[in-house]
């Protein structure tokens, strides 16, 4: 089984690349953003709670996110592997994911980061916000708040996964196909 964490700031292209990688490597794509949006759209308790944080550009608390993700993994017992998109975002989430996967006899195979300049990403999100309907993609201040949250809470994961020899960085600027090829070069060697 191959389990990959796709890592990067909001707007780096994780969701776009995950669509190609899940098919190419027969992985179950677990996007916390998609799962939260599904719950928001269907007005579940989790959705209402997540929305209060997302509307401010804040991260949803670890306990809520971890329980939600464990439930999604449990729904796919026959999976050949998982592609985690948008999770983990904090050291506590990474440790909880490792602990949970051990109970399944599994582990994270690699963490691959899509690196890109903040200013390019801000413009990408503002463009996406014109069609996505997502309030957190339409306000530059909220976008920059998300990057601040990322720098404070998510960037430390680089050292966590480097310490396990599982961290790989990929240039996230270029055509979708170029970036997919860069990611595939890493995954094919795992």
UniProtKB/TrEMBL annotation:
<feature type="binding site">
    <location>
        <position position="134"/>
    </location>
    <ligand>
        <name>AMP</name>
    </ligand>
</feature>
<feature type="binding site">
    <location>
        <position position="37"/>
    </location>
    <ligand>
        <name>AMP</name>
    </ligand>
</feature>
<dbReference type="GO" id="GO:0004017">
    <property type="term" value="F:AMP kinase activity"/>
</dbReference>
<keyword id="KW-0545">Nucleotide biosynthesis</keyword>
<feature type="binding site">
    <location>
        <position position="174"/>
    </location>
    <ligand>
        <name>ATP</name>
    </ligand>
</feature>
<comment type="subunit">
    <text>Monomer.</text>
</comment>
<keyword id="KW-0547">Nucleotide-binding</keyword>
<comment type="pathway">
    <text>Purine metabolism; AMP biosynthesis via salvage pathway; AMP from ADP: step 1/1.</text>
</comment>
<feature type="binding site">
    <location>
        <begin position="11"/>
        <end position="16"/>
    </location>
    <ligand>
        <name>ATP</name>
    </ligand>
</feature>
<keyword id="KW-0418">Kinase</keyword>
<keyword id="KW-0808">Transferase</keyword>
<keyword id="KW-0963">Cytoplasm</keyword>
<feature type="binding site">
    <location>
        <position position="93"/>
    </location>
    <ligand>
        <name>AMP</name>
    </ligand>
</feature>
<comment type="similarity">
    <text>Belongs to the adenylate kinase family.</text>
</comment>
<dbReference type="InterPro" id="IPR027417">
    <property type="entry name" value="P-loop_NTPase"/>
</dbReference>
<comment type="function">
    <text>Catalyzes the reversible transfer of the terminal phosphate group between ATP and AMP. Plays an important role in cellular energy homeostasis and in adenine nucleotide metabolism.</text>
</comment>
<dbReference type="InterPro" id="IPR000850">
    <property type="entry name" value="Adenylat/UMP-CMP_kin"/>
</dbReference>
<protein>
    <recommendedName>
        <fullName>Adenylate kinase</fullName>
        <ecNumber>2.7.4.3</ecNumber>
    </recommendedName>
</protein>
<feature type="binding site">
    <location>
        <begin position="58"/>
        <end position="60"/>
    </location>
    <ligand>
        <name>AMP</name>
    </ligand>
</feature>
<feature type="binding site">
    <location>
        <position position="146"/>
    </location>
    <ligand>
        <name>AMP</name>
    </ligand>
</feature>
<feature type="binding site">
    <location>
        <position position="32"/>
    </location>
    <ligand>
        <name>AMP</name>
    </ligand>
</feature>
<feature type="binding site">
    <location>
        <position position="128"/>
    </location>
    <ligand>
        <name>ATP</name>
    </ligand>
</feature>
<feature type="region of interest" description="NMP">
    <location>
        <begin position="31"/>
        <end position="60"/>
    </location>
</feature>
<dbReference type="InterPro" id="IPR033690">
    <property type="entry name" value="Adenylat_kinase_CS"/>
</dbReference>
<feature type="binding site">
    <location>
        <begin position="86"/>
        <end position="89"/>
    </location>
    <ligand>
        <name>AMP</name>
    </ligand>
</feature>
<keyword id="KW-0067">ATP-binding</keyword>
<dbReference type="Pfam" id="PF00406">
    <property type="entry name" value="ADK"/>
</dbReference>
